[in-house]
Design brief:
Blueprint lengths: L1 H27 L5 H14 L8 E6 L1 H7 L6 H13 L4 E4 L15 H5 L8 H6 L4 E8 L14 E5 L11 E3 L3 H6 L2 E4 L12 E3 L1 E4 L2 E4 L1 H10 L4 E5 L9 E5 L2 E5 L4 E3 L10 E3 H5 L12 E6 L7 E3 L5 E3 H14 L9 H19 L5 H26 L6 H34 L4 H9 L8 E13 L2 H7 L2 H21 L3 E6 L2 E6 L8 H25 L7 E16 L4 E6 L1 H16 L3 E4 H4 L7 E8 L7 E6 L2 H5 L2 H13 L5 H11 L4 H11 L6 E3 L3
Parallel strand pairs: 1-14, 1-15, 2-3, 2-15, 3-6, 4-10, 21-23, 24-26
Antiparallel strand pairs: 3-5, 7-13, 8-9, 10-11, 11-12, 16-17, 18-20, 18-21, 19-20, 21-22, 23-25, 24-25
Helix pairs in contact: 1-11, 1-13, 8-10, 11-12, 11-13, 12-13, 16-17, 21-22, 22-23
Length: about 700
């Protein structure tokens, strides 16, 4: 009883252990799955991207703008003109997603009247332009270089709750814009964004950290200035397990943040965001609907100057477009959120689905268990997408889906291990009697073990050993059996190496066919290659036996291709997989014809036509006994026959004979003078001398 239970319990036990390890890894090491999780979230957003959004426009300083207005960095005079154009077009708010260069020193001091008035005029046109329209300017936090002074604030920021967290943007240096531009702008925010390791930007910070203090990012400042909000309130949750560890209040809006002060970006396609070139704005060609009463973000997108990152939609976006996407999302108030409970819920989903599959494995087998596993995985994946589609919740459905697949794999592999020993035993037993490819085919398709047949084009190889009968009469039985077994083992091994099916062994003769039971489109090439390999082996084997004093004869081989009926034939007590048809008899006749021509391999034209890459020379148009139509027959050419010139000389003479030319006899006589040992040359020379013509050869045996 115990022995019967062990195999049955092994798959569920192994699957349960694997499930426990998977759940432990999900809960204790969630970072292990971060890359895979991010790709799934990218797929969510690609299938369901954000739609049309808030009135935000991007102005890009591209290659055309640099060609028209000079190389980067632009002087503040040019940037000032750009802002003036936008202000004149009615822009509601303008933000610079770049850090302007310092203004050049004036050639002369300002007039005395201006100095004595006590009013400090701005030194640069950019500062003047920034004052014309509600504006925001950016700075960057850096780990190397920059200023050690804290960045200035344009608005207050109060922290409520626990102590300030330590964010990824905790950097010690600042790269600030010119002081006059800072004073003229209504907002100042950090430009820093942090792509993931794969180069894709999935989150944008709304707060950054310098020292122990939090500062707003550029996106947060643009939202504050555009909406006329006052100071910020950042709430830090005391409970680390809460769904929203950080949140920021900007005017009437409260935005949930992750533990690093970021929001997940739900990208809209780049084509949905209006983008203008700076050149057309400077030329005064400003489309009023794309600027008036809209928030305009200015950035650099020229290759080699402006930084570009890849979105989750696979698009390369400039910094200005990235900030515009984040600002549009803030204005609409729809933010993807990955709650803290997601990790536990994902582990629970994987555990419940896997346990259900384990329980069902006691009742279900094979395809039913596969279908059940697929349905469970599909349900988890569909549920994850539904949560994103309806609530913008980032639930990792891939990890529990993989857990269910892993448990199913464990169940399947353990079940396979239990039955594999018996299957291997059966396969080894049958392979000792029939071809391995036939055994494999029937193991995969047991339904074909039926008494039926089908028409199919196949190729055949038949061999016979010359002088076998005298060898049997002279050799001792024990020695003969060992000799014949070694010989046949070599032939069968070669046949199996070429995926041939061993049809039968009759004494010293072997019959192999190709493209049955498994269809092989290149069956003719396989058959010919197999025949050539057998010929090489048999010639070497015979030579070795002769050196040992054993009069071992040559192996004659016939190769032919044709349509036959193949299938299982016999009765209920025994099945025999065979091929029936005239091509089998033709192959046998071709094999026996070698003794008349002095060749070892005879290949029909039907096979040769499908093997143009093999070097062959024609034997003749054979008219076999009982046949009316001749069969073009060939034999392989060796490299020695090609190098010696035999192939060329024989081909020339054969071509003349084929045309029934009177010069054919002289050509074969010349060929025989050079190659007197060649059997085919002697054959055709004798025929022509006896009054024959053409290349037809009638065989009566």
């Amino acid at each position: 009883m115990i022995r019967r239970l062990r195999p049955r319990l092994l798959p569920p036990l192994l699957a349960t252990v694997l499930l426990a390890l998977a759940v432990y890894a999900q809960i204790c090491c969630p970072q292990v799955f971060s890359s895979m999780r991010n790709l799934l979230f990218d797929a969510y957003m690609a299938v369901f991207p954000a739609g049309a959004r808030a009135p935000v426009t991007v102005v890009e300083i591209d290659e055309q703008a640099l060609a028209d207005s000079g190389p980067w960095p632009w002087p503040q005079e040019t940037l000032g003109r750009l802002l003036e154009r936008l202000a004149a077009a009615g822009a509601e708010t303008v933000a610079l997603t770049l850090i302007p260069a310092e203004a050049a020193e004036p050639d002369a001091p300002p007039p005395r009247a201006e100095r004595d008035s006590g009013f400090e005029m701005p030194k640069d046109r950019l500062a003047v332009a920034l004052a014309l329209v509600p504006s925001v300017i950016g700075y960057a936090l850096t780990a190397h270089g920059g200023s050690a002074a804290p960045p200035p604030r344009a608005a207050g920021l109060a922290m409520v709750g626990a102590a300030a967290p330590r964010l990824h943007s905790h950097l010690g240096g600042t790269l600030l814009p010119p002081a006059e531009s800072v004073r003229a702008a209504q907002g100042l925010g950090a430009l820093n964004v942090l792509p993931d390791r794969d180069g894709r930007l999935r989150r944008v910070p709304l707060v950054v950290q310098w020292g122990e203090e939090l500062y707003p990012s550029l996106v947060a400042e643009v939202l504050r200035v555009a909406t006329g909000a006052g100071s910020y309130v950042v709430r830090i949750a005391a409970d680390a397990a809460t769904d929203v560890p950080l949140s920021i209040r900007i005017g009437p809006r409260t935005v949930p943040l992750n533990g690093n002060g970021e929001i997940w970006l739900h990208y809209a396609p780049r084509s949905s965001l209006p983008v203008l070139g700076a050149a057309e704005v400077l030329d005064g060609e400003v489309p009023a609907p794309l600027v008036a009463e809209r928030i305009v973000l200015i950035g650099v997108s020229a290759p080699g100057i402006g930084s570009a990152v890849t979105s989750t939609l696979g698009e390369s976006l400039s910094a200005a477009v990235i900030h515009a996407q984040a600002l549009s999302q803030l204005l609409t108030g729809a933010h993807p959120l990955r709650p803290r409970w997601a990790v536990g819920a994902e582990a629970l989903a994987g555990a419940l689905g896997s346990l259900l599959l384990i329980l069902l494995s006691f009742r279900l087998r094979g395809a039913w268990l596969v279908v059940t596993g697929l349905l469970l995985v599909a349900a988890v994946l569909a549920g994850g997408f539904w949560l994103f589609r309806t609530h913008l919740l980032l639930f990792d459905a891939l990890t529990p889906g993989i857990t269910i697949v892993a448990v199913f794999t464990a169940l399947s592999l353990a079940g396979y291990a239990i039955t594999e020993r018996e299957r291997r035993f059966v396969e080894r037993a049958f392979s000792s009697f029939v071809s391995p490819n036939l055994v494999r085919h029937l193991m995969r398709h047991p339904e074909q073990l039926r008494l039926r047949g089908e028409r199919r084009e196949c190729s055949f190889v038949m061999t016979d050993l010359a002088g076998f009968t005298p060898l049997v009469e002279r050799a001792a039985p024990e020695a003969l059996v060992d000799l014949l077994n070694r010989y046949l083992d070599g032939l069968i091994r070669i046949a199996f190496e070429h995926d041939g099916t061993l049809e039968r062994i009759v004494g010293d003769a072997v019959s192999v066919h190709f493209s049955a039971p498994v269809v092989q489109p290149d069956h003719a090439r396989r058959a010919l290659d197999c025949a050539l390999a057998i010929d090489r082996f048999a010639a070497d084997f015979a030579e070795r036996m002769r050196r040992e004093g054993v009069p071992f004869g040559d192996t004659r081989i016939g190769v032919h291709t044709g349509e036959v009926i193949v299938g299982n034939f016999g009765g209920r007590s025994q099945l025999d997989y065979r091929a029936f048809g005239d091509p089998i008899n033709t192959t046998a006749r071709l094999e026996s014809s070698n003794r008349h021509f002095g060749t070892r391999v005879a290949v029909s034209g039907d096979t040769a036509a499908q093997c143009p890459q093999t070097s062959l020379r024609p034997i003749g148009a054979l008219i076999l006994k009982g046949k009316r139509n001749p069969i073009q027959t060939y034999t392989p050419l060796t490299q020695t026959e090609i190098d010696s010139g035999l192939a060329m000389a024989y081909d020339h003479a054969y071509h003349l004979a084929e045309q029934r030319s009177p010069q054919a006899l002289a050509a074969f006589e010349a060929c025989a003078a050079r190659f007197p040992e060649d059997g085919l040359v002697r054959l055709h020379l004798q025929r022509l001398r006896a009054g024959g013509s053409g290349v037809e050869i009638r065989l009566e045996q």
